[in-house]
């Protein structure tokens, strides 16, 4: 019985909806099962941030780590070159936008 109570406390304390990138998944804008994705790599995070459009800028409490442009015919994902800094949580986050749209504010 003690083990069961301990397991319940462990699971109850976990935030099932959070991810390594700090975001929660919200409402799907669309559902593309075969998105056309173009990956654009940047040599540094500074370069990636300098080239980001104004719409990709983040609130002061967040740092821009990757960004994407969603178009009707596909998606362009901008990330730091993974050979320099491999950050799969940011790559996956942007690919999720290509599949489901702008699902977070």
Task: Explain how this protein is built.
30% of the residues lie in helices and 17% in strands. By secondary structure, it is of the alpha+beta class. The protein has a three-stranded mixed β-sheet with strand order 1-3-2. Strand 2 and strand 3 (74-80) form a beta hairpin. The radius of gyration is 17 Å and the shape is globular. Mean pLDDT is 82; it is low at 1-16.
Write a brief caption for the model:
The chain has three helices and three strands. It is α+β, with helices and mostly antiparallel strands.
Shape call: globular
Quick check: average pLDDT? Answer: 82
Question: End-to-end distance, in Å?
Answer: 43 Å
Number of strand segments: 3
Q: Report low-confidence residues grouped into runs of 5 or more.
A: 1-16
Largest sheet: 3 strands, mixed
How much helicity do the residues have? 25-40%
Write a concise keyword list for the protein shown above.
globular, three-stranded mixed sheet, alpha+beta, single chain, 105 residues, disordered N terminus
Show the helix and strand layout:
Blueprint: H1 2-13, E1 37-42, H2 45-50, E2 67-71, E3 74-80, H3 88-100
Parallel strand pairs: 1-3
Antiparallel strand pairs: 2-3
């Amino acid at each position: 019985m003690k083990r069961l109570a301990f397991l319940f406390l462990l699971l109850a304390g976990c935030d099932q909806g959070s991810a390594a990138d700090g975001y929660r998944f919200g409402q799907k804008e669309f559902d593309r099962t075969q998105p056309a994705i173009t990956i654009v790599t940047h040599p540094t995070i500074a370069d990636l941030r300098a080239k980001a459009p104004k719409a990709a800028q983040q609130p002061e409490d967040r740092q821009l780590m990757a960004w994407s442009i969603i178009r009707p015919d596909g998606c362009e994902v901008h990330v730091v070159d993974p050979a320099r800094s491999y950050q799969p949580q940011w790559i996956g986050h942007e690919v999720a936008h290509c599949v489901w749209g702008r699902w977070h504010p």
